[in-house]
Design goal:
By secondary structure, this protein is of the alpha+beta class. The chain folds into four domains: 37 residues, no CATH class; 71 residues, Phenylalanyl-tRNA Synthetase, Chain B, domain 1 (2-Layer Sandwich); 203 residues, BirA Bifunctional Protein, domain 2 (2-Layer Sandwich), CATH 3.30.930; 88 residues, Alpha-Beta Plaits (2-Layer Sandwich). 30% of the residues lie in helices and 28% in strands. A hairpin with a 2-residue loop joins strand 14 and strand 15.
Length: 441
Amino acid sequence: MTNSEGHSHRYHEDPNSGSYDWLSEKYADLWREHAIDENHYEFKNPSIDLDLNWLSNRLGIKIKKEDVVSILERLKFGVKAKKDILEVTVPSWRATGDVSIPEDLVEEVSRIYGYDNIKPSMPDVPLDVPEINFERRYERRLKNIMTGNLAFMETYNYSFVNKAEVEYFGFEVENHIALKNYLSEDQSLLRTSLIPNLLKNVVDSQRFYSDFKIFELGRVFLKKEGEYDRAIGSKEQIPWQHKILSGVVVEKENSEPFYKAKGVVESLLDQLDLNYYFKEIDYSLPAWVETSRTLEIFVKGEAMGSVGEISNFTKSKLDIDGAVGYFELDFTKLAEAITDKKKYKEIPKYPAVLRDLAVLVGSETNWEDIKKEVKKAGGKLVEKIDLFDVYDGDKIESGKRSLAFHLEYWSAEKTLESAEVDELHKKIVKALEKKFNIKVR
């Protein structure tokens, strides 16, 4: 057939659709020359290994091996048994992705076996008692004590400091860990103490309050090897990063912040049932510490921190009004010293005898030394020694201070008579007069 332009065409009929199409002779010849149809596909029935023990665990019941084989064969699956494992061949009409994994066979077996024949039951899951995180438990306990009867407010600060702050408080910049990916210059170093940030909190808080107490429990980072490996099998440790408990006591007028801070430490350690004592510090201290009013804290014979007063130099630079006492305790080591085991003893059969003693001593005399001398002179009959008052005001001569403390005398064998206690009391006074040149007030 020739069209209006003189080209000849050949019609082609699509036998499926009944429609007609035409191609020029040229393109029809090219189509016949290059159209290729190849079919080398070989169908292979997929094979799946079915573990009968695994099948039982999945279904929650034990089905006999012969029953499983029977069910699969009735569904036209090929089955070859190898002990507790069945080699299952999938029929061609189910091998289009319908059945391809062991879980599909579980569905086939359970469907034919009957869902009603499978009794529902809770899985047997072994439960182990979780390991107790004692540090976290003691952290909560400590915070309850601090915010409870000790009436502290908790604060949270960033773990970062900058070079200017480090130098400002008299720390060595070289002893700080520098961050490679810090967000700003103000956060380029990791802190080695909580006190600088707490003093910044004091400056901010004094705009609204004159007397207050705040504490923080957080990590500090020292430039030395810690306790934990950098990775499993590594010989290198991550930096030392213990949790530290630090607090400040701020009072504007007529205050003794050092004794207030020391009383906080004593009350806290008493409530944690820890044995402790204080000792004068024999090493150099940073500029923010009042050296003459600083003691080291020992718990179970190990150094745990310090308690003292912020120096006038630092307060003037920060423009802080009033007096500020501080304390620092290594909480990570403290948590290891705490124990939940209690030792109970019988209620005393015999009453204790209480006496008070007020003495005038030199300002340089250490209370701990006085306490040891009292215990030495009184022996086993001195049950408790509690300092309750310190005074060095205008009514006391220069270079002196007044200490008042309770003495509790007690014997586990008998009731102490007044004459016996008086004699022992005089012995203690004489011992103190001889060693410290005290005067009884």
